[in-house]
Write a structure and sequence with these properties.
The chain is α/β, with parallel strands linked by helices. The relative contact order is 0.09. The N terminus is likely disordered. It has 12 helices and 11 strands. β7, α10 and β8 form a beta-alpha-beta unit. The strands form 2 sheets. It has a 6-stranded mixed beta sheet, with helices on both faces. The protein has a 5-stranded parallel beta sheet with strand order 2-1-3-4-5, with helices on both faces.
Length: 327
């Protein structure tokens, strides 16, 4: 599909995590590096509302839900903008517009970078491998690595890069992050092979060291409350803590897989954001527990509450312990 004349501007709207970055990298390597980057922290997904485009311009959207960008996408299409969309999240009803070019697959074992990899016929597959591991799809990453002759040592390094790129996107705002995702995208751009980025730039080492330092601090935090079968951790109000919250929850579940976990972090606008993990085999899932609060939801093993008022902290802690205590 021809999106626009050569005179139009090109915008890339991409999630700032590993999947968004690696999807972008594949396309820029294959199609050229021109264009304006629009991105943010991992939770910043309503990106199309920030784009002021006009007829003849085009937008490539990577790894953010169409359902969360529906109104802005419709506005842009009405204004004569061509929109090419790659994503693996719930999309809802798609526009019936010849300027809308959808590459959307919500299957649980794909990520956006794999959709771009298919689109490009495997031309820059090693970046898709990085993304798969970063997006916590190790089966996909391993399958792509085997299919393309990537050995164990290289696969391990690509997986490590995916982890650090993904971790970098966690925070309340870009100022919390080790690197602005747009700056990270430009640092990646010259590297056709991800291993060139790992070994030939100082950025990989900075990402690695930042991750390790944050996680050492986070893992040293003692639980605020702990009963048999349920642990509650409250994070301090620091950038490193906002970065580490999601990873800490995963790490604690690996080290103490039998206990339900709640990690609470201060929000910049007041109140707390809550991450809940629940082991397999519990009668009550994280999703059902979190839906007991106005802004809660999630999946059976991992859920969250977007805003818990500070005044409700004690009541939350009591309900959490009552729900998951084992004795």
């Amino acid at each position: 599909m021809q999106h626009t004349s050569s005179n139009g501007r090109h915008f890339y709207a991409f999630n700032g995590d590993a999947d968004g970055l690696c999807a972008l990298q594949q396309l820029r390597l294959a199609e050229g590096a021109g264009g304006t980057l629009v991105t943010g922290v991992k939770r910043d997904i309503r990106l199309l509302a920030r784009i002021d485009a006009r007829a003849g311009d085009r937008i490539t959207v990577l790894d953010v839900s169409h359902d969360q960008n529906r109104e802005a996408a419709a506005r842009l299409l009405r204004d004569g903008v061509a929109v090419r969309y790659f994503d693996h999240h719930f999309a809802g009803e798609l526009p019936d517009d010849p300027r809308f070019d959808a590459h959307i697959d919500t299957a649980p074992d794909v990520c956006t970078s794999e959709l771009v990899n298919r689109y490009l016929g495997g031309r820059h597959v090693r970046w898709a491998i990085v993304a798969a591991f970063g997006d916590e799809l190790p089966a996909l990453g391993g399958a792509l690595a085997r299919a393309h002759g990537v050995g164990d040592d290289e696969r391990h390094t690509l997986a490590e890069l995916g982890l650090y790129l993904n971790y970098n996107a966690y925070g309340d705002h870009v100022g919390d992050l080790h690197f602005d995702p747009a700056a990270l995208a430009d640092a990646m751009l010259p590297c056709v092979d991800p291993l060139d980025f790992v070994h030939g730039t100082p950025v990989f080492a900075a990402l690695r060291d930042g991750y390790r330092d944050d996680m050492a601090r986070a893992c040293a935090l003692p639980p605020l409350r702990e009963v048999p079968g349920a642990t509650l951790i409250r994070m301090p109000d620091h950038p490193w803590a906002r970065r580490a919250t999601g990873m800490l929850a995963n790490e604690r579940m690996r080290s103490a897989p039998g206990a339900a976990l709640a990690v609470l972090s201060p929000r910049a606008d007041g109140g707390l954001v809550v991450s809940v993990r629940v082991p397999d085999g519990r009668a009550l899932g994280a999703d059902d527990f979190c839906r007991g609060f106005p802004t809660g939801g999630g999946r059976k093993r991992a859920g969250g509450i977007n805003h818990l008022p500070e005044a409700e902290f004690d009541a939350f802690a009591a309900r959490f312990e009552q729900a998951f205590r084992l004795d």
